[in-house]
């Protein structure tokens, strides 16, 4: 199974490891299918490390009635930072070492968040100290320090420099964006021309990882 992220800087096709991490892949695909990722920003960019997005709280779905996505997201409000389709239950980590590691450029992985209270919505039923939600990141280089802490669930296809995937990832990494001291991307306001916007416009789901 694969999806194409149609970004402001081109299309990224990513293969999902559905058999290895079924719950994580199901969550990502459901959020893609219901449009929750549409028009959401890449809100963190650290060249040489990773780009992070998927905060559905920052997308238009959070400010709408959500009638169109309620079959996938059966809750009233999207919490700050986003959440998984399991909400208010937790989406637990699916760590598989040494098979799935942050060992190269183009790895797709979940941005885990700490569990502070196992009774709060989004954390109910958590089995570990961290859980997954809707946010994810793509590596620009190997990041072995994340092995065992974040769930790897896919990889960018066509990653060599002359191929589309590698070229788009490079364009994202080198985008002319306004980044604050914490690595957060400050999205330009309408009419501002000095910096580029960095976001996911839409997502296409493919049954075949090699589908055109």
TrEMBL record:
One of its GO terms (cellular component) is catalytic step 2 spliceosome. InterPro entries: Cyclophilin-like_dom_sf, Cyclophilin-type_PPIase, Cyclophilin-type_PPIase_CS, Cyclophilin-type_PPIase_dom, Cyclophilin_A-like. Keywords: Isomerase, Rotamase. One of its GO terms (biological process) is protein folding. It catalyses: [protein]-peptidylproline (omega=180) = [protein]-peptidylproline (omega=0). Residues 6-205 form the PPIase cyclophilin-type domain. It comes from the Eukaryota. GO terms for molecular function: peptidyl-prolyl cis-trans isomerase activity. PANTHER family: PEPTIDYL-PROLYL CIS-TRANS ISOMERASE-LIKE 3, PEPTIDYL-PROLYL CIS-TRANS ISOMERASE-RELATED. Belongs to the cyclophilin-type PPIase family. PPIL3 subfamily. This is Peptidyl-prolyl cis-trans isomerase. It comes from Aspergillus coremiiformis.
């Amino acid at each position: 199974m694969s999806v194409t992220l149609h970004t402001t800087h081109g299309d990224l096709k990513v293969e999902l490891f559905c058999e290895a991490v079924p719950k994580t892949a199901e969550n990502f695909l459901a959020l893609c299918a219901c449009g929750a990722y549409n028009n959401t920003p890449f809100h963190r960019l650290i060249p040489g490390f990773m780009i992070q997005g998927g905060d559905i709280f920052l997308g238009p779905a959070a400010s709408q009635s959500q009638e169109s996505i309620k079959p996938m997201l059966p809750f009233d409000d999207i919490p700050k930072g986003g959440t998984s389709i399991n909400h208010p239950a937790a989406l637990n980590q699916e760590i598989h070492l040494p098979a799935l590691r942050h060992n190269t450029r183009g790895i797709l992985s979940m941005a885990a968040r700490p569990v502070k209270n196992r009774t709060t919505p989004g954390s109910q039923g958590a089995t570990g100290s961290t859980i997954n939600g809707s946010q994810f990141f793509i590596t620009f280089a190997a990041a072995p320090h994340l092995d065992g802490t974040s769930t790897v669930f896919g990889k960018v296809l066509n990653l060599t420099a002359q191929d589309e995937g590698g070229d788009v990832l490079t364009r994202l990494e080198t985008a002319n964006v306004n980044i604050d001291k914490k690595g957060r991307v400050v999205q330009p306001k309408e009419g501002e021309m000095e910096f580029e916007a960095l976001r996911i416009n839409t997502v296409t789901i493919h049954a075949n990882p090699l589908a055109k």
